[in-house]
Amino acid sequence: MRKKLIILCAIVVSGTSFADSGIYANANVGADTNSGDVAYNANAGYMLNSYFGLEAGYTGANTNYWDLALKGVLPIPVVDIYGKLGMSYVTTSGFNAGAVMYGAGISIPIFPMLQINVEDYAISNATTQNFLMAGLQIKF
Q: Cα(27)–Cα(64) distance, rounded to whole angstroms?
């Protein structure tokens, strides 16, 4: 029991001494709300300051989506509310095109370096694909 308490204290103390470099990565799973198919997503980004960042990512469903977006964040003490706006490159069998990507979400901190995020975003060109995702984000 004593060993477990020491390990728990070490984890808490190491989390409080975390220095945020602005670099983050996240992985999400969810659904393409148009078709109901399972979708997955991975992003990497850099926060320029507390309010703005750049993010690049990949979303996989029946189609592949590569995106680059500007991320705006409203940091509130309990959660971060954010929005994204950018471009996406859509690839599927016999079809490649550019599209607009936009969305919003919230991040809930678990530890200073780890957050749970939930987001809803759309990729829109001739048709609009909408994704509802949830996952984890880690800051480096």
A: 16
Q: What is the DSSP string of 112-123?
A: TTEEEEEEEEEE
- Cα(20)–Cα(115) distance, integer angstroms: 13
Per-residue confidence band for 127, with pLDDT thresholds at 50, 70 and 90: confident
52 strand-pairing partners: 72
Show the domains of the chain with their CATH numbers. 2-139 (2.40.160.20)
Q: How confident is the model at residue 73 (pLDDT cuts 50, 70, 90)?
A: very high
Task: Give residue-wise pLDDT tens across range 40-62.
Answer: 999 999 999 999 999 999 999 88
For residue 80, give Cα distances in angstroms to 11, 38, 54. Answer: 23, 26, 16
